[in-house]
Design goal:
The structure holds two protein chains of two kinds. By secondary structure, chain A is mainly alpha-helical. Chain A is elongated, with a radius of gyration of 27 Å. The mean pLDDT of chain A is 79. The longest helix of chain B has 37 residues. Chain B is α+β, with helices and mostly antiparallel strands. Chain B is elongated, with a radius of gyration of 32 Å. In chain B, the strands form two sheets. In chain B, strands 2-3-8-5-6 form a five-stranded antiparallel sheet. A four-stranded antiparallel sheet of chain B has the order 1-9-4-7, with no helix packed on it. In chain B, helix 11 packs across helix 12. The chains are: A mainly alpha, B alpha+beta.
Chain lengths: 351, 454
């Protein structure tokens, strides 16, 4: 299997997964969405007719009036194509086609900060904030993690090694959001250092907004890094310990290369492929995990948008956000796959 | 993968301090679960979300042991039950209930509530008074119970905030040297005569019911002295005893963690081994399907599923399994690819043994150490994911877990109000449970992958 074929297969699988995800989402929320849409239409027709005295006045009895409204609603439902069940191929096909063109329609309840109800607007307003927080966190985590991991692996069994390993093990069993709650409790209320809500209280048009956003970002950032770097360090340590046992390291040692140089140049270079792959994966994985963390800190990003949308069952937003989250996730899996294939030729040759 | 026998693995495991520590924590958690199930009836626990059943408990009370570290003792919440002695006095019968207790705290109680159920006909008279440690008697209430035509029962709660209690206490303020003014009754009754400081000592609350003729009976009565400290773990905003929730959370967390971990590892193992063993087209198809599930974003899907399908804890466990088996399937497939090439598997194939038999007899046993390690490692993930969903308010209301306690804490702003006993214990329990399995898993893992130890 050549590299082109490999890339093509992966890309095709990813696209299929994306479509399946959207299909599952639509089928899960479809029936609810149908009811809500129909209610919306009924309400709209009724208020249009009753608000217009010219039409409302020309009826002899209440029954006749009701009859008229009903026929109008049916007509409107038919025009919008809502008379077909939500699982009819036409409607699903149309929805999927629209989603592919990034046309997610209008939100039922939620709006963007600037007041737009267009789902695309809402999502692309929130997305950069999530990327800002979680990308910064992941970069910090990986830097600290790689350094600590390399340090621990160069002195297996030392205090540094044991501390890193135990910290990794202990921190991995704490839920990030609970640590978040504790830190809010400690540093926002007991000692008032950082704000409790991560949403800046000045409008996004204000020039000081960026500064306020960064200040509000500190506490969530500390939380994510605190919980995340241990696992990274442990992972890097384990890769490195494996590599340090290989023959070429032995050879370097015998010819008198300094141990520090071996660790930070030669061994780390060899551990790079899996590390880069995991970096690509965790960058996107953090986006999915953002839902709970953002809910705790009230960070105005994708995660909280998603949660808000689910709480009020704002279906266009749910579908749009699922699409964007999945797309990000898949793209990074794809990149991770390619990187792995690039660094480890055994994968792409199908051994 | 090592060729170690189960006996060797057990010996190795018992040598690892981490493994022993994990087992010890697990044993403690199992003990807690057993205690919870035996001492707290499941009915009590399922009343968790019913405010009616927690009404005699105090709001956001700190755990009682906090008093051990304080010089100014916080008043404890007391629920006093007392047997009633009845005595007839000619035409009028009297039922007396007296509640005596030592008050040794450095603060006033929040309130007091007299709660009773009486069976009578007609309209008996209820008189309440309190005898203070200094001997002074303060009359609280003298009022008739509602008229009942036929002999039936009547339940009532007399609150200290009751207007007539306020008025009566204000009228007897001659005992005190300070001006009671607008102070609530409990802050006057429990006060020293000289100044408005709590008076320590033995108080006796007496409730007399007078009834013409006989036949009036107090079937159930108690006096609640509202305090700010209660129970081993305190209470929350909805007056729930957190100890109940925390204790019952243990068997639930263990259930979710173990069931999800075992089921998904078994599923993944069988799937992966079968794919690896059959190879070729079967392997290719099965692994593509695996890729699809792997790429589905788990948390968003779990949220949608719990909202649209069901938030029952059992259904949730099922959903968690759907996303749990994928990683195990990948690893066990590659392991079975390696084992397949060994001579004895070839021999078995040559001898014409059935596929199922080869898989069960020759391949799966080799993977067991890995399976145990992955079960232990998957448990914390399942527990934290469930806790996370519950934290978002998507948990099963009839089986409140630690995550739901934290959800309530967050909803009622426990952080902002400094209610540490509401935030700390559930999270610590989640972490400790996770830690037990991570310890066991790591100990097993270092036996299965000896290279990491060096």
């Amino acid at each position: 299997m050549g590299i082109k074929r490999y890339v093509a297969t992966r890309a095709l699988t990813m696209f299929a997964v994306l479509m399946i995800t959207i299909l599952i989402t639509i089928s899960l929320v479809g029936s609810n969405m149908d009811i809500i849409l129909k209610q919306g239409v009924a309400f709209q027709v009724r208020s249009e007719i009753t608000d217009n005295p010219a039409t409302a006045g020309g009826f002899l009895s209440a029954e006749e009036f009701e009859e008229f409204i009903k026929s109008q609603i049916d007509q409107r439902v038919q025009i919008l194509g809502l008379d077909e069940p939500w699982y009819s191929p036409q409607r699903i096909g149309l929805t999927m086609y629209k989603i592919l063109l990034l046309d997610f329609g209008h939100a039922t309840f939620l709006t963007s900060d600037s007041g737009s109800t267009d789902v695309g607007d809402i999502i692309f307003e929130k997305l950069p904030r999530t990327i800002l927080l979680f990308t910064t966190a992941t970069v910090l985590i990986s830097i600290v993690g790689i350094f600590l991991g390399a340090l621990a692996s160069s002195r297996v069994g030392s205090i540094v090694d044991r501390l890193t390993s135990s910290f990794a093990i202990i921190s991995s069993s704490f839920p990030v959001w609970w640590i978040g709650m504790l830190l809010i409790f400690l540093f926002a209320f007991t000692y008032q250092v950082f704000p409790a809500r991560a949403t800046p209280d000045i409008p996004s048009s204000d020039p000081r907004y960026i500064g306020a956003l960064l200040y509000h970002m500190t506490l969530p950032l500390i939380t994510i890094v605190l919980i995340g770097f241990g696992a990274w360090a442990y992972l890097v340590r384990n890769f490195m310990v494996g590599i340090m046992q290989e023959d070429f390291v032995m050879a370097k040692r015998t010819i008198g290369v300094r141990p520090r140089r071996i660790v930070y140049t030669h061994a780390l270079k060899n551990a790079a492929p899996p590390i880069i792959t995991i970096l690509a994966l965790s960058l996107s994985g953090s986006l999915g995990g953002a839902i709970i963390t953002e809910a705790v800190f009230d960070w105005p990003g994708m995660g909280r948008l998603y949660f808000d949308a689910i709480t009020v069952l704002d279906l266009p937003v749910i579908i749009g956000a699922t699409y964007v989250l999945t797309a990000f996730f898949l793209v990074s899996i794809f990149i991770a796959d390619l990187l792995y294939g690039y660094f480890d030729p055994r994968i792409r040759t199908g051994v | 993968m090592s060729g170690a026998t189960s006996g060797e693995i057990r010996d190795e495991f018992l040598k690892s301090k981490m493994g022993i520590a994990g087992l010890a924590i697990l044993a403690a958690l199992i003990a807690v679960s057993v205690i919870a199930v035996l001492t707290i009836p499941v009915e009590t626990f399922q009343e968790w979300n019913n405010p009616q059943s927690w009404i005699s408990y105090p709001k956001v009370a700190v755990p009682v042991w906090v008093n051990l570290f304080l010089t100014e003792k916080i008043p404890e919440h007391r629920i006093l039950d007392s047997p009633h002695t009845s005595s007839a006095q000619g035409e009028v019968s009297r039922t007396t209930g007296s509640f005596a207790f030592e008050y040794t705290y450095d603060g006033f109680p929040n309130d007091f509530i007299y709660e009773f159920t009486a069976e009578y006909s007609g309209s008996p008279l209820l008189q309440m008074y309190v005898i203070r440690p200094d001997g002074a008697r303060i009359d609280l209430l003298s009022s008739s119970l509602p008229y009942l035509e036929t002999h039936s029962s009547h339940t009532e709660r007399v609150f200290s905030a009751d207007y007539s209690i306020k008025k009566n206490v204000a009228m007897q303020s001659g005992v005190f040297d300070f001006e009671p003014g607008r102070l609530p009754p409990e802050e006057i009754i429990f006060s020293q005569a000289a100044s408005n400081e709590p008076l320590k000592g033995r108080y006796v609350f007496v409730a007399d019911t007078y009834h013409a003729g006989d036949g009036a009976k107090i079937t159930d009565s108690r006096l609640i002295i509202g305090g700010k400290a209660f129970g081993v773990m305190g209470t929350d905003e909805l007056r729930r005893d957190l100890a109940v929730g925390l204790l019952w959370g243990t068997p639930l967390a263990l259930f979710i963690g173990l069931v999800v971990a075992i089921a998904s590892v078994v599923m993944g193992l069988l799937y992966g081994v079968y794919a690896g063993f059959r190879g070729k087209k079967t392997d290719e198809t099965m692994m593509r399907f695996n890729d699809v599930i792997y790429a589905l974003p788990a948390l968003p899907f779990l949220i949608i599923l719990s909202i649209t399908i069901s938030n029952s804890i059992f259904v949730m466990a099922g959903f968690l399994m759907v996303f749990g088996w994928v990683g195990v399937a990948k690893v066990s497939r590659s392991m079975s690819l390696q084992i397949k090439t060994r001579g004895y598997v070839d021999a078995a194939v040559m001898m014409g043994q059935k596929d199922s038999k080869i898989i069960l007899r020759h391949i799966l046993p080799q993977l067991l150490p890995y399976a145990f390690a992955s079960i232990a490692i998957s448990v914390p993930a399942a527990i934290t994911t469930e806790a996370g969903l519950s934290f978002l308010g998507l948990g099963d209301p009839s089986f409140p877990t630690w995550g739901q306690i934290l959800h309530d804490a967050d909803t009622y702003g426990a952080g902002a109000r400094g209610l540490w006993w509401w935030i700390m214990p559930p999270g610590v329990m989640i972490a400790v449970t996770g830690l037990a399995f991570v310890f066991i898993g790591n100990a097993l893992d270092s036996i299965v992958n000896p290279r990491l130890k060096r």
